[in-house]
Amino acid sequence: MRVSKWRLHLSQGLPFYYGWVIFAASAAVSYSSRPIMGVATLSVFLVPMTEEFGLSRGVFAGAVSLGGICAVAISPLVGWWIDRHGSGIIIATGGMITGVCALGLSMVSNIWAFYAFYVPGRMAFASPLELGTSTAVSNWFIRRRAFAFGALNVTQGMGLALTPLAAYLIITSWSWRTAWLTMGIFALIVGVLPALLLVARRPEDM
């Protein structure tokens, strides 16, 4: 209740439409948390992790597929929650899962630990973060919905393009464990609190 009142007070003091705050919070997640568990990012870790653990590349592909299957299984539940309670908690939860899983991946020592942390992260990538951000923007825009969706896709594309590059630079400068650790901390800082504090379900709720 206090958070809702704070959002209302903030919206009344802004010189622009509050929907752009919703867009900014969604874009922050699309730029920070979601790309971490993308295939493009994982591919940067493929060589150093397979060499250290002596794993085949098929093992990595299996983790991606299993995470996608889990995302399909939970998507109806995620959609039901968003309809009833809005996207804020779902987005924040997805960002938190991604951050915690990335931190866990920095400490794995065997294939089972890798699956235990990557599969939930991939599941959050493909379901809560995808459905949550797109629904949040959709609920707050009508006349400029196409423009807002287009801008959101730009942030997603930038995240998917820049995150693998950042991971590569960290890996070459330090190690793959440091890269997972850094991205996990970044996801927790940028991808959780803004969504939790700023994202309301729809304008009518305020």
Structural account:
This protein has 206 residues and is mainly alpha-helical. The protein is 82% helix and 0% strand. It is built from ten helices and no strands. It has helices at residues 2-13, 19-32, 39-53, 57-85, 88-105, 111-126, 128-140, 145-173, 176-191, 193-198. Helix 2 packs parallel to helix 8 (145-173), helix 5 runs antiparallel to helix 7 (128-140) and helix 6 runs parallel beside helix 7. The mean pLDDT is 92.
Please outline what is shown here.
By secondary structure, the chain is mainly alpha-helical. Helix content is 82%, strand content 0%.
Descriptors:
10 helices, 82% helix, single chain
Anisotropy-based shape: elongated
Could you tell me the strand content as a percent range? under 5%
List the helices and strands in order.
HHHHHHHHHH
Major beta-sheet overview: none
Mean pLDDT: 92
Distance linking N and C termini: 12 Å
Q: How many strands? A: 0
What's the tally of helices? Answer: 10
Q: Percentage of helical residues?
A: over 70%
Radius of gyration: 18 Å
Given helix and strand content, the structural type is: mainly alpha
Low-confidence stretches: none
